[in-house]
Write a structure and sequence with these properties.
This is Taste receptor type 1 member 2. Keywords: Cell membrane, G-protein coupled receptor, Glycoprotein, Membrane, Receptor, Signal, Transducer, Transmembrane, Transmembrane helix. The protein is built from 15 helices and 14 strands. By secondary structure, it is α/β, with parallel strands linked by helices. Among the domains are: 1-171 and 224-339, Response regulator (Rossmann fold), CATH 3.40.50; 382-436, no CATH class. The strands form 4 sheets. The protein has an 8-stranded mixed β-sheet, sandwiched between helices. It starts with a helix and ends in a 31-residue tail after the last helix.
Length: 511
């Protein structure tokens, strides 16, 4: 048992640079202290998907994950909190799942945006089931697991199911390298004799007989999702070794004993460019994020992928989509995927059902407004202040001076209301200045300044010159009882007649 524990500890310290595992659990450095990856984690991918959903204002979506790996589904549920997005349907897929039944449920719920965060084999079965069941006019968001699948876009009838948007790592083109490695620049060239000769030659330090049987086109048409991740993994290890071995342009210190923790320390400090991509790792040894949003153009032959947007986290978070490149299936307009239509001005939401996205609209009472800063919507009778915050031009001078700000300011909670208060004070000041300016224009030029005497009250206090009366001559009792009432005038009579409740009357319902 001790030997097993020692082996586990040693394995946890060995350096691993992975290019394909995206599960968020590998970001936990307590469990995986030496695990480095060059592919983005599921957390980043889920954040990207939420960005797209919010970009188009959708809030009624379905999420289909993998039954054996619910990492994506759990993260999606976590990160849509407080975003206004409702998860109307969710399911973990398996190869034996009833895909037709799943699509039927989604269609019955009027969900038009479907996220498939699953491996290619599950996604392929779902898309083929959608074609077979005549599912139309949906938006399909593909995770990077199958976003660049080369076979699915050629499926007959795929254009009818709607618009497919994929999220993938920004890709590099290795076409020139592949053609050069195959010994040809001609498309379709497949000289088996030449390939067999190449198969006997070493490529770097490996012999790959099977690779030599593939044409350049067959290699290029493979899913390129992991291409850059593999490329980055090799360069990450090379850069770290270069640092540990203290290499320069000519040589390295080959006698240096390289230990795993030394490589890990250097990887943490790496910062270099690779084909225009910034390579750097955070405290969890996750790479910098550089996603591409691709549109499946299945309306052209052959089908192709068109980059329509990007998501970067270096040097700062930037998310952009070129809406002009997105050719929606719905006559070019953005599809609707919301549980309810937003209420018009003058109406507030009335929740219906379990989801906050589902509501009906009811007319607001007079002199109230809908407070969008607090959910659910609250009506507050501070309409004029709200008007000043939102429609400044609509508020009149009469409205300004009707506002008793001193008594209502204690009720003000939202920032929008505070903006309204400031604007009212500002306009009151401007009105006062305007009134003063108008008064000055009516004065003659020689009366623009007043003399000190005309604006100063005379210091004439003759009223205090008279003698105070003698206190001995004042009847104190009569004087101080002038403003007093009789006790019987301000006291209710204690006349209860028969209204006392007796023990006999307790329990009598007529009482």
């Amino acid at each position: 048992q001790c030997e097993k524990m020692d082996l586990k500890i040693i394995q946890s310290l060995l350096e691993r640079v992975n290019y394909g595992a995206s599960s968020y659990v590998f970001s936990d450095k307590l469990q995986y202290p030496s695990y480095v990856r060059t592919i983005s984690s599921n957390k980043d991918l889920i954040e990207m998907i939420i960005h797209i959903i919010r970009w188009y204002g959708w809030n009624w979506v379905a999420f289909l994950g993998s039954q054996h790996d619910l990492d994506g589904l759990n993260l999606f549920n976590k990160y849509i909190r407080n975003t206004g997005i409702c998860l109307a349907y969710q399911e973990g897929l398996s190869l034996n799942a009833n895909y037709s039944q799943t699509l039927k449920k989604i269609d019955e719920l009027n969900i038009n945006v479907i996220v498939i965060f699953a491996l290619p084999q599950y996604a392929t079965k779902m898309i083929k089931a959608a074609i077979a069941n005549n599912i139309q006019d949906k938006v399909w968001i593909a995770s990077q697991h199958w976003a660049m699948n080369k076979q699915l876009p050629t499926e007959p009838g795929i254009g009818k199911i709607g618009t497919i948007i994929g999220i993938t790592e920004k890709l590099l083109s290795f076409n020139e390298f592949v053609y050069k490695a195959r010994g040809t620049t001609d498309v379709g060239h497949n000289d088996r004799a030449e390939s067999e000769v190449q198969g006997k030659n070493k490529t770097c330090n490996q012999v790959c007989d099977y690779c030599s049987l593939l044409t350049a086109e067959e290699i290029i048409n493979e899913n390129p999702t992991l291409s850059f991740s593999i490329y980055a993994a090799i360069y990450t290890i090379a850069h770290a070794l270069h640092k540990v071995l203290q290499c320069d342009m000519n040589e390295c210190h080959k006698n240096t004993v390289v230990k795993p923790y030394m490589l890990l320390g250097e990887i943490k400090k790496l910062d270099f460019l690779l084909n225009g991509r910034h390579i750097e790792y955070d405290d969890h040894f996750d790479p910098t994020i550089s996603f591409a949003v691709v549109l499946w153009r299945t309306d052209v032959n052959p089908p192709r992928f068109v980059m329509v947007g990007s998501y970067e986290k270096h040097p700062e978070i930037t998310f952009t989509i070129d809406n002009s490149l997105l050719l929606w299936h719905n006559n070019g307009s953005v599809p609707f995927s919301n549980c309810s239509v937003e209420c018009e001005a003058g109406y507030s939401r009335k929740p219906e059902g379990f989801h906050s996205c589902c509501f009906s609209c009811e007319k607001c009472p007079p002199n109230t407004y809908v407070d969008f800063s607090h959910m659910p919507h609250i009506t507050i009778t501070l309409a004029k202040i709200w008007l000043a915050a939102h429609w400044e031009k609509k508020i009149t001078k009469a409205h300004m001076f009707e506002c008793d700000l001193e008594t209502t300011i204690k009720e003000i909670l939202s920032p929008q209301m505070k903006v309204g208060v400031v604007r009212i004070y500002s306009k009151k000041t401007r009105y006062l200045l305007a009134d003063c300016s108008d008064a000055l224009t009516d004065l003659p030029e020689d009366a623009m300044e007043a003399t000190l005497k005309t604006i100063t009250l005379p210091e004439d206090f003759t009223d205090f010159d008279s003698q105070l009366p003698d206190l001995n001559t004042i009847d104190v009792v009569d004087h101080f009882s002038l403003n007093q009432c009789r006790t019987e005038d301000i006291t209710l009579k204690e006349n209860f007649e028969n209204h006392f409740l007796t023990m006999e009357r307790i329990g009598n319902t007529s009482e």
